[in-house]
Amino acid sequence: MLSLTHYPVHVLKLVNDKTCWRLRHRGPDWSGLHQHGDCYLAHQRLAIVDPASGDQPLFNEDKTVAVTVNGEIYNHKELRKSLPKHKFRTGSDCEYDEYGEEFVDMLDGIFSFVLLDTRDNSFIAARDAIGVTSLYIGWGQDGSIWIASELKALHDDCDHFEHFPPGHLYSSKQGGLRRWYNPPWFSKAIPSNPYDPLALRKALESAVIKRLMTDVPFGVLLSGGLDSSLVASITARHLASTSADKKLGSQLHTFCVGLENAPDMKFAREVAEYLGSVHHEFHFTLQDGIDAIEDVIYHTESYDVTTVRGSTPMFLMTRKIKSLGVKMVLSGEGSDEIFGGYLYFHKAPNKKEFHREDM
Which stretches make up the Glutamine amidotransferase type-2 domain (predicted)? Predict the structure, then answer.
């Protein structure tokens, strides 16, 4: 996803070719471009929901509003029902109807988007509550504003760029960022809600089930650890009651990667056998990992040792998964950060610092 505002029209073609190509790997299914005056939207689509008609940018009924989105809106069917007079053009989960800037609070999903209103040449951009989807914002020397899913689309044309913060919205009318996501717990130094295991279980199951919203083949990354095993178990249990089962079948596919004789492979195999999934094991060598490092750094846009180390086997595995025709995966990623699962969390000096590190 790429957005460019207030840029001389005569250089747009050059910008299109150069910057869109840098993000081509993000979306092999469709390349969409839209220009209005000196504002420009581009999108590289990986089609998960409504592959047939959900190409972007998307428009409202009279095409005065255009939007490009990276993400999934899990409550899009409920939102459609609340708009009986609106004639939706696609089956996409990202099609928009007008609610002003406050519509972001209505979204249940993971997303980064830029919405352009051609009636007053204004735009808004927003990122989901905890920043699952990537987003960056940059400023050119000529006053142009650039917003993209990856830094590589910005570095040639921006004097300054930075992370677009999670849970925030940028409005061209206001000229700055504001936080749209303000849950009650966010401002608490120490959470006060008592631990409720049943509520936690219900929330986890709900989170997994709503992510089974797909029109394309998918699977689960399974390491054999607690987090990925729970996600795989919930998926296997509820798959038959989702639309994915009707379109793709009820046989769950699981995937694991590791060095030869790695413990994860053994544990993942045991979980897969228990769940009855179609299990795929991928092995790599140290040389495979070394050979992949340059590509991993390019795609993660990071030299951080921990990031590169953890991303390398994931990079090798996802290439194999893609070759099998699978376009979406669920995983247990992120749970150690939220629940303090890493060993270093025991060094937190107090509850306040523990909570700050978690959030």
Answer: 1-175
From 253, 234, 272, 260, select the one nearest 324 (Cα to Cα): 253
Q: At 289, which CATH number?
A: 3.40.50.620
Q: What amino acid is encoded at 125 in this protein?
A: A
Cα torsion through 20, 302, 111, 279, rounded to 10: 100
Q: What is the pLDDT of residues 322-358, one digit of tens each?
A: 999 898 999 998 888 888 888 888 888 988 888 888 8
pLDDT, greater one: 77 or 315:
315
What CATH number is associated with residue 101? Answer: 3.60.20.10
The answer to whether residue 299 sits within a structural domain is yes
Q: Does the residue 90 lie in any domain?
A: yes
332 and 246 co-located in one domain = yes
Indicate whether 50 belongs to any domain: yes
Residues forming beta bridges with residue 67, ordered by sequence position: 58, 115
Give, in order, the Cα–Cα distances in Å from 264 to each of 179, 270, 335: 40, 10, 17
pLDDT in tens, 159-199: 999 999 999 999 998 888 999 999 887 777 787 888 899 99
Residue (of 103, 114, 80) closest to 2 by Cα position: 114
Rounded Cα gap, residues 147 and 202, in angstroms: 36
Q: Which residue type does 206 have?
A: S
- Same domain, residue pair 129 and 259: no
| Structural domain that includes position 84 | 13-182
Strand bridging mode 109-117 / 65-73: antiparallel
pTM beyond 0.90 = no
Number of domains within the chain: 2
* Contact in structure between 100 and 64 (CB atoms under 8 Å): no
